[in-house]
Amino acid sequence: MTQVQTIDRGLHGLAAIEQLTPLLEDKLQNTFDSTTAPHPDLSRLGLTISEQNLALSHYERFIHAKLVGRSLSHARDYVRVVAHAANLGSISDQQSSEFKFLISDTIPAVIFEAAALVHMGDQLASKETINQWVRMVIPVQGGQFKVAADNVGRITPMQSMRLPAERSEELKRLASAFRDANASFQSAGSELLLSTGRASVGSDIVIEPALARFPALAKASMDLWNASIAYMIDDLQGRRNATLLRLVLASSVGLLVILAAFGLAIVLGRSLAEQTQQEFDALGFHDPLTGLPNRRALMRHLENPPADKAWQTSGMVLIDIRHFKAINSVFGEGTGDSVLREVAQDLSSLVSGTDFIARTGGTEFIIVRHGLSKSLRELRDLADTAADVLTRERHNDGRTLALDTCIGLSLRHGAVAEETVLEAALALKAAKRKGSSAICVFDPDMRAEFDKNAEVAKELALALKNGRIVSWFQPQICARTGATVGAEALVRWIDDDNGIRFPAAFLPAAAEAGYMDAVDDTVRGQAFELAAEFVDDRPMPFHVGINVSASFLAAPDCVERLLDAVHEAGLSPRNVSVEILEAVMVDAVTSEPVKANVATLSQIGFFVELDDFGTGHSSISSLRDLHVDRVKIDRSFVSGVDSDPDLQKFTSALIQLAKSLDIEVLAEGVETQAELDWLAASGCDVIQGWLVSKAVPREEFLAKAATFGAAISLEPAGERSAQVDQLRVNANG
């Protein structure tokens, strides 16, 4: 019955997606009432806790988001998570294979991108002046819409040819209606793009035709989306019924044979039963992509270990291929599947005897080794060998790529059990935190940390709901004038029982439980609110700095999400400093989508800042490849720089490198006047650190913004003047 259960899971996923239909229609017609929105039932999809939290988070944001574009973005993300959990791609046959992409990707993208385009155009049409960055917003958004719409136009004709006549005619009719609505909307969109390119004031922008034609496009898209869902449901239901019928017929044939010839029936019955069992075992206990046993097979193996090894030392090697999504994004899912099959073959060559190997997740593989004679050393050697084999350079369809791994190890004196899998998973989490090629062995402290994080996550969910997660702001001041020119937004948890909780105390738990998106959205929203209030009456530029993760920067909707948040706050991108960790640029494959998004952010006016400059492995290439406006020198190159000649040489070289490329320099972690004097003499533009102020609440920042620079001396007097003059000579000489 495993095949039936797999199909049922797909049907449950489609039902959860179909539940969005009336809600989306109400959102598009501005008749939505969040109080009547039902709670989605995801209980039958077999989601992990983090997957369920992520899906529900997107659903809640879809329900409560004020902007239609932002709401539709979360609806699209919710559909993607559910479609992935329901495994719609792998259970689709040839006829319905593309419907999965129409449902989870292309049609939602059309609706979202079109809504975002008309929303942006409407917002810009109300502005008094139109500058260069504004002129670039509409073409970027229009291009993203066109890609999505063209994909729908390409897929639907091919799909209609594969369907039965009645279904084919219906799909052709809906596809034709979509093409007409799309052509009309794209015509209006072209008018919007051209008028934006020529506009000097908001009233020059021609938005009315696009606004008028958007409802027809939205309806045609929704009709096509609903039909795609209905077809997949009917297709899966038919395949489910056919599977059940085959089982019934097999049983009936066996019964007739028994009645005709009892003796022969016993032989045939046993043979048929064994063959059927083997087929179902292959379906239910093996991964269809790699042919390896799956997680269910692993659990069965753990329940029935080799008899002669049951009480000997055993261990697990849990391997994860890092940043694999980037391989799919850059090279395509076909290449990704091919690489996973290669990984399975490579790992299979390392096992022998009573070893057991399985693919337990998307990019996770596990090796169970029984009867370890050298205990941990032998298990560690196996992990080292696996890492060496998997990280070799690979060639696929003329492309060269290299994989990166993290590995968790768990050892048990006696038979391995399900508990050992959890221990290996916790060791793998620790390895992922260490980064590239890390291998970690489970120890009891990891379990204690896991249990602690689970408790923290429960409290964090309540804190997010009650508004206890807030942004504090550390001022950034000009090293020459003392004026406040920016602030970095830093998250704090205001806990009535435990006081102020700092990021290290709860962000690991947030990441593990899938709450980081919610935390980041909260920090960004509050940061933009402060910036909007602060820049109103300021004659000079001001940047509010937000830390942006690699996963967020690599996301397809990264640019749209930031633009939506900026527009909702009434800001322009030039007031926002996007802080990027230098380490995210190390891996060539994973950095590609990041580079593309950062380039777009820079083009439309965001201030790009490279954080922790000098601590990574790609300083010069990062400056070359990214459109960096400012580098932030890490505290490790600032502490004691006034008195350490060797450190002065290094820090001065970093500053001069940036300056030679016309890039601003900010030094963080400045704690003494002497450090400030040396940095200012060496050409540093902006400073941040406890010498000026620690991070403070929003109200305190606004109250003290004009006086932060008063805490330092910018024009040394008396005996200190000669010292600073000498610092300038040393720094420049």
Keywords:
4 domains, 733 residues, eight-stranded mixed barrel, alpha/beta, 16 strands, five-stranded mixed sheet, globular, 13% strand, Alpha-Beta Plaits
Count of DSSP helices?
A: 26
Task: Profile the largest sheet.
Answer: 8 strands, mixed, barrel
The structural class is alpha/beta
Helical proportion, percent range: 55-70%
Contiguous low-pLDDT stretches (5 residues minimum) are 251-269, 279-283, 716-725
| CATH topology label of the largest domain | TIM Barrel
Number of strands: 16
How many structurally independent domains? 4
| Large-scale geometry | globular
Distance between termini?
79 Å
Highest CATH level, the class of the largest domain: Alpha Beta
Major sheet strand order: 8-9-11-12-13-14-15-16
**Average pLDDT figure:** 78
Estimated share of beta-strand residues: 5-15%
Oligomer: single chain
CATH architecture descriptor of the largest domain: Alpha-Beta Barrel
The CATH superfamily of the largest domain bears the name EAL domain
Compute the CA-based radius of gyration: 30 Å
